[in-house]
Amino acid sequence: MYLTLLNGTGYIFDVDDCMDLRTKHRIMGALVGTANSRGWSTSEAALPLALTNYETQLLIDEGIAVLVSKVVDLSKQPDSAKLMAYKEEFDRRLLAQADALKAEKLRETKRHVDKILNGKRNKLLQQGKTAEAAQLYTDRIYDTDSLKYRVFHDLWKRGKYVTAGDAFGADFLVYPGDPLLYHASHIVIVQSTPAIRPLELIAKVRLSVIVNKRCVFAHATTAGNQIAYQTVAWSNPSK
């Protein structure tokens, strides 16, 4: 599977790849395309699927996908081989047309050859499977040593469905199943240490109660090589 890197973000343009990520690998992403002429809306979004940096990095680390950047290939002038291949394809199509259209098509193509080639380049941006026009991007998208990424990776390895939790004042949301079918069950707060400040504890637990979810604090173990979790629930002694 190929991810297309655009402005530092990994995108999926193929609907089958999008469904594979959701059903086989529990990677949700977010649809950011425009579905109709009225403009973008959260209820009518379409492909491409934008991935967070930690989702992109996880797919690379797990060998599920490779990231390609086409900036270099698309910004340079086509070489003679590509021009020849384009001309051969163009000639083949001309032969399939009626004689009356050949001369007109040839004139129109020569007149707009620059626009046609630019259009071809733009189309390649949406074809992550065109390996010959893509260059593998080997730099890290997200710091794999960061605690936030390690927590995301650990939850994913445990079989959880995980998405960004910014809208709920958390680092991540955890779902018991596909988010299309289930509401999030937990909010996850990433802590640099096991110690939780009292005000932070009260604020996050109250927030979890308001949104009807369990609050989980995640931190690295003392040895630093594993992730530990603390689930905190709000209780009312008067009840």
Automatic annotation (TrEMBL):
It is found in: Nucleus, Nucleolus. InterPro entries: tRNA_endonuc-like_dom_sf, tRNA_intron_Endo_cat-like_sf, tRNA_intron_Endonuc_cat-like, TSEN34, TSEN34_N. GO terms for cellular component: nucleolus; tRNA-intron endonuclease complex. Its main location: nucleus. The keyword Nucleotide-binding does not apply. Keywords: Lyase, mRNA processing, Nucleus, tRNA processing. SUPFAM superfamilies: tRNA-intron endonuclease catalytic domain-like. CDD domains: tRNA-intron_lyase_C. Residues 147-224 form the tRNA intron endonuclease catalytic domain. Residues 3-69 form the TSEN34 N-terminal domain. The active site is at residues 175, 183, 213. Pfam families: tRNA_int_endo, TSEN34_N. GO terms for molecular function: nucleic acid binding; tRNA-intron lyase activity. PANTHER family: TRNA-SPLICING ENDONUCLEASE SUBUNIT SEN34, TRNA-SPLICING ENDONUCLEASE SUBUNIT SEN34-RELATED. Belongs to the tRNA-intron endonuclease family. tRNA splicing endonuclease is a heterotetramer composed of TSEN2, TSEN15, TSEN34/LENG5 and TSEN54. tRNA splicing endonuclease complex also contains proteins of the pre-mRNA 3'-end processing machinery such as CLP1, CPSF1, CPSF4 and CSTF2. Constitutes one of the two catalytic subunit of the tRNA-splicing endonuclease complex, a complex responsible for identification and cleavage of the splice sites in pre-tRNA. It cleaves pre-tRNA at the 5'- and 3'-splice sites to release the intron. The products are an intron and two tRNA half-molecules bearing 2',3'-cyclic phosphate and 5'-OH termini. There are no conserved sequences at the splice sites, but the intron is invariably located at the same site in the gene, placing the splice sites an invariant distance from the constant structural features of the tRNA body. This is tRNA-splicing endonuclease subunit Sen34. It comes from Drosophila grimshawi. The gene is Dgri\GH16791.
